[in-house]
Amino acid sequence: MSGRRALNRTQTQPSNRGGPARGRRRPTGVPVLPDVYQEMLRESGVGASVAGKKRRKVENGGDEVIDTAWPTALEPAVASSSKPVQLQREKPWEKPELVEEADEELDDSDDDDNEVDWEDVDLTTVLEPESGVLEVTLNSPGEMKRPTLERRKITVVDQKIRLEVHKLHLLCLMVHVSRRNKWCNNKQVQENLRRRFKDDTLISNLNPAPQLYQLERNTRFLRGLTEVKNLWRRKFWITRRGLARPFWLDTVDLSKSQRDDGDPPMSKGDFLDASQSLTGSRDLGAQLFCALLRSLGVTARLICSLQPMPFSFAQKGTTQSLSRSTSKKEESVSPLPSAASRAPLKEPFASPVLPQYDPRIPAAQREVLASLRPASCTTVQSPSRTPHVPARGTIMIKNESQYPVYWIEAWNVATQGWVPVDPLVLNKVGCASRFEPPQSDLNNVMSYVAAFEEEGHVKDVTRRYANNYNAKTRKLRLNATKGGELWWLNLLRLFERGWDLDRDQVEDSELASKELGEGIPSSVADLKDHPLFALKRHLRRNQVIYPERPVGSVTTGIGSKAVIETVYRRQDVKTVRSPMQWYRLGREIKTGEQPLKHITVRKRKRHGEAGEEDDESGETGLYAIFQTEEYIPPPVADGMVPKNSFGNIDIYVPSMVPKGGIHVPHKDAVRAAKIIGIDFAEAVTAFEHKGRQASAVIKGVVIAEQYQAALYAVLGAIISEKKEEDAEKKSLENMRLWKRFLLGLRIRERIENEYGDVKEGESLGGWGRKRQSIIEADKGKGKASQLWRKSAEAEGLLDLEQNQEAGGFMREDKPEVRREPISLRSLAKGDGENDAGGFLPEDIAGVDETGGFLPGDTDCDAGFMPEGPGIDDSGVKSDDDESMLSADPDMDNEDLDWF
DNA sequence: CTGTGATACTATTCTTTGAGGTTA
DNA sequence: TTAACCTCTTTGAATAGTATCACA
Fold first, then answer.
1. In this model, does residue A317 exceed pLDDT 50?
2. Å between A558 CA and C24 C1'?
3. 3-state class percentages of chain A: helix first, strand second, coil last, to nearest 5
4. CA gyration radius for chain A?
5. How many domains does chain A divide into?
6. In this predicted model, what pLDDT tens digit does every residue of A270-280 receive, in sequence order?
7. Residues A41 and A111 in one domain
8. Residues A875, A736: contact at Cβ < 8 Å?
9. Domain membership of residue A565 as a residue range
10. What local confidence, expressed as pLDDT, does residue A730 receive?
11. Of A714, A747, A769, which marks where a domain is finished?
12. Using a 7 Å CB cut-off, which residues contact strand B?
């Protein structure tokens, strides 16, 4: 473990980053991300943690991440300042890193901040020997070249990465669509469109007079929508691919690939141009159609079925399955007819030879492309039926999904409902249920459908379009992951209106009822984790169905093994616990309750009973929460606190404090209670497990209420006494170090006087540089000094410094002057329990805000005190070493191996 | 094509009140 | 002499979750 960590850290050092021979366990045969890529990513101005994550995503197939959402989403300003995008477009094939590679780096993502700190301190000499560690895990170049299809090992980190990428991609897509939606409101864009589609009948149909009957208004509105849809279909030319579902790639060699066209990054100006030329991807077509409707007075939403990178590892859509199906298709499908022959148009607009897209890409290339690019270059043909005739005036881009990614919803005032309109792909007005692509459509997966209103607000309308939202669609969404739903809702919150319009409420209830009306799924897989229904077979060990109210049945098994299983309601699935588990939650079983379930538990061999059988098992009854009530502990009587068999008291939850008693969760409360001589019981609040051994976590004591004031008084005295002692101790220690330090300086001075100038950094080993800094700091010049002054000022230590300058250096000279600021400070900071006086190395290890005075303080590059390692072989406590290195509180001892 | 069940593998959960030596 | 502190160790087994494959 430590070895691996050591490697990780080394890899993230700039010196090793991106080297040609990085350790990896799986061959890739692809070049590694160049240094400049990493650096530019880091420079891109995002915070450390964000940057860290982003970098990893990029390494791990980041091409997809960025490309799908960003290029189309970025305005020129953004695009030009966003280096990842630029880079990506320059050399998109240069980073096919493996997931595992990225994993290893993810491990130390938490340490990024600290690494910066470490680099401030000059530790390079210490690091150098470590670079040899790299060689240990290197594979031979030959091995790297060989593409493997061996079974992937999926680690937790892999999964986390996918999940994070999924989220990031979602975020990008949302911002992207949001931006396009904003452009749809552009006056010039709308004017361009309106000019070409201005038609009084049309406009009056789309905005039927309110005095008409509802039916009539509805009819006219729908007629108007159909007309404008048809018009648009005739006039808009699809010349490019639009957004499509992206894929993860794992083992495909990308070095031979080349970029396909696709919806390019687009500026507002380009958007404006497109509103003139009426050409572009079908996505662009839908966006402009939205602008058109808005310009004609219709309340229109831009709808996008977001296509984020999937977070699951399911085979469908992975490279393997893709290339397999691709190659299969490749044989049977002869080169497709050119767009021209396919759409023989006699319209005046007909010029369907598309310079941007050559349908006759060689098969080999196509396969690579299929796995390379998310949307724009997948050449897998959708195996679904092809019911949709290419629009007149539009051209079907080969192998694009038969279902739209973008479309429009128009608000029908007459019926108070949103009407979906897709002019270019489905050619439909209404029929929300027809917008969901079949599961076999590899280029289009419906998981999140977001509706962007004119003002920029967003609604999740997936349930309107997904026909099996609970059974299937949910599982593709963050809803299926832990905490994921919350994340998605949080994201949506950024785009919410903040208050509901009437039409929102109507829509909400419509969506809710659609979800409820979904019915019972017919397959076992769909019933798993279904929010409304449950099967007994999927129950966990600590779950029961109670009461058992069958709501349906499903046939499972095949052929003769078919069995009918009963379907229950999810709300009847209850979590059950043993009496002991309930007790730990502060509840006990009501009298007379019978367990809902029995499970067998293996009884452990207890300590000291060696030789006895340890596989003896017993049955435990489990109870649901409604069978329990709050545990009421026996009250404190006559100042005596009730105790358990261990002589302490269980306080797992606050309600377990007995009546008449009070919990004082302070470490020194025991001592205080003993001093007063009152009865008390130590409070057990949890357990911690070391190996097989569980030991109680004791937090303070429980005493009788009437002694509270007395106890606190004594406690206060103890605390302040302790603080003083601490301060004294720390002060002494500090003095000792100062003395030592000064002694060193004097020796140095003497040597110089007697033997002439000593060259910096030579005869004094590590001392030279530090000493120089110190001298500079002392003089009040130099960067280090400024740094130090700054931190000293922040810590209120300048008084101390002045005292020193006044000559009171040694403790025996002016002990009282030194002591006061230290004590004050440590007292002010202390919180009672683990107060950090902030002067000694051990404090630095644990507390961030400690003052900058001693070795190991990363704020003070000047190295104000003698450095521990290498210099100090006697005086400084030996664990100084460790304290310094452990400036990061999260860093465990394993990290020390790194040094 | 899709769903199912078997299999292989990994991750997570469950457990839930020391002993022995050293130091101050 | 005693109390406080430190170190030692590490244990599976059951369960849950995921991917993959063959097959109906």
1. no
2. 7
3. 45, 15, 40
4. 35
5. 6
6. 999 999 999 99
7. yes
8. yes
9. 524-575
10. 81
11. A714
12. A 153, 155-156, 383, 438-440, 523-526, 542, 554, 556-558, 561, 563, 578, 580-581, 584, 601, 604, 607-608, 644, 646, 648, 650, 684, 687, 689-690, 692-696
